[in-house]
Amino acid sequence: MRRGSYRDRAVVVRTYDFGEADRIVVLLTREHGLVRTVAKGVRRGKSRFGSRLQPFVALDVHLYRGKNLATVAEADTVAYYGAGIIEDYDRYTAASAVLETAERLAGVEAAAGDPYLYESVTETFARMQSTRHPSLVLDAFCLQAMRHAGWAPGLFDCAQCGARGPHHAFHPGIGGAACVRCRPSKSAEVPEETLHLMWLLAHSHWPAARQIAEADGGAQLVAAAHRLTVAHLQWHVETTITSVQVMDQR
């Protein structure tokens, strides 16, 4: 391998056309974090690997380092997750939100050398392919990624004073659940079952989470958990996750 080049596993998080035949491809890699690359000539019909540089594909990529952009020299498919996702609107929008969230988190956290985000994204895609509850899978990804980053919401004890829960208020500004003494104005009033569902998702207790989602009244709890998860995420990354807004317009 030439000096200044390296191989890594990656998923495509975003692309846009560049020049007459090239494409800018933003990759979330396993070992090098978020990498901006250029794939030269991939918009021509004879490109060797242009069709592989798409969302929901795990890739083995060979990259040459550059001053501003790395160059994609090779891209081989390791796993394809599009089946079951791209033909289903709810799964597709939720999976797209996973990619945008991963990009935002990689920009906030120093992800280079930490394989967590890449591995979490590919595991989430595998689960998304057949799930009946795309928003639960998305929320689990977000909660677990925030937990890994060190700013997951408190879901039982008061995030401000530590008073024993369960509590019935939530505000991302204080870090999650809030007791009656600490709750800020405009806190969300939530049943404790909502926070319990979020806790199950954050700790990968899928059978129990699905049981709640499919019980009477479960849809309301799932929707409430989703709103709180997104509010906490966007508070900490300090930006709107656009694809989540698209997903929630359904």
UniProtKB/TrEMBL annotation:
The free-text function statement in the UniProt record for this protein reads: Involved in DNA repair and RecF pathway recombination.
Q: What is this protein called?
A: DNA repair protein RecO
Give GO terms for biological process: DNA recombination; double-strand break repair
- List the taxonomic lineage: Bacteria, Bacillati, Actinomycetota, Actinomycetes, Mycobacteriales
Q: Enumerate the spans annotated as DNA replication/recombination mediator RecO N-terminal domain.
A: 5-81
Q: Which NCBIfam families is this protein grouped with?
A: reco
Q: Which keywords does this Swiss-Prot/TrEMBL entry list?
A: DNA damage, DNA recombination, DNA repair
Q: Name one GO cellular component term.
A: bacterial nucleoid
Tell me the InterPro entries matching this sequence. Answer: ARFGAP/RecO, DNA_rep/recomb_RecO_N, NA-bd_OB-fold, RecO, RecO_C
What family does this belong to?
A: Belongs to the RecO family.
Write one Pfam family the protein is assigned to.
RecO_C
Q: Which organism is it from?
A: Corynebacterium maris DSM 45190
